[in-house]
Amino acid sequence: MKTAENDKKVTILGVSFIHITLDNMVKRLVTHVQEKRKAFVVTANPEIVLYANENKEYKQYIDKADYVTPDGIGIVKGAQLLGQPLPERVTGFDMFMNLLEASNEHRFSIYLLGAKEEVLVKTKDVITKNYPNITIVGSHNGFFDWNDTVIDTEIKEKKPDFVFVALGFPRQEQWIAQRIETFQQGVFIGIGGSFDVLAGEVKRAPEVWQKLNLEWFYRLVKQPSRWRRMLALPRFAVKIFGNKMKRSS
Ligand code: UDP
Questions:
Q1: Which residues are near ligand 1 (CB < 6 Å)?
Q2: Residue 116, Ramachandran bin (φ over 0: left; ψ between -120 and 50: alpha; else beta)
């Protein structure tokens, strides 16, 4: 179901990223909605790429995506190192914000899936207050029985333009990949912990930190429990170097 065959791609450890700016990616997804062409978007960070590199089943889910975008500076740097630079970061949170803006402008409808119930309620409040033209046609927290089809049925009935799936990796990619074929329309995008950020539960790094490409370090300081997950970053770097050596020998 790939709809993006003609796009320029940059492949990092087997995962093909679209070579596009944030603005153009958002415009592209708006066009999908307007033309009623469904899409599956993965916003991949180094952790996701490593996992896909080492886990066949997960790689198959990622391969079903129409678009994979670079979620974070690690991917952008990795691409640069491999001599195939990407224009910029196209993160899940930035896309979420820009797509809400666009949805407000075009009066699109959305469905929210993920996070704890209280975070989801706060997220809906913030959206209703700040984006009055958006219709939230439905929502569900991220803690449900995987075999339950209530969510699928609701999405099929309400036909939201965007389905924001904030279950964290690898669940969100699996959830979308396993059912995207059964949906007629809609843009489905995995956005990790974005509801927590919008709801004010988790603070995003101040802009200075972001500009210095140190957002990952800020997250580590604020949520030290993530250190184990962060070990993916040096492992990712080592693999990229190995890949570069192989290519140049
Ligand atoms: N989450 C969920 N269902 C689960 C596990 C996690 O909805 O079974 C949510 C969690 O509440 C949080 C998000 O998924 O809102 C994961 O956030 P994290 O920052 O870990 O995302 P990532 O780093 O993968 O982008």
A1: 114-116, 142-143, 166-169, 171, 192-193, 195-196
A2: beta
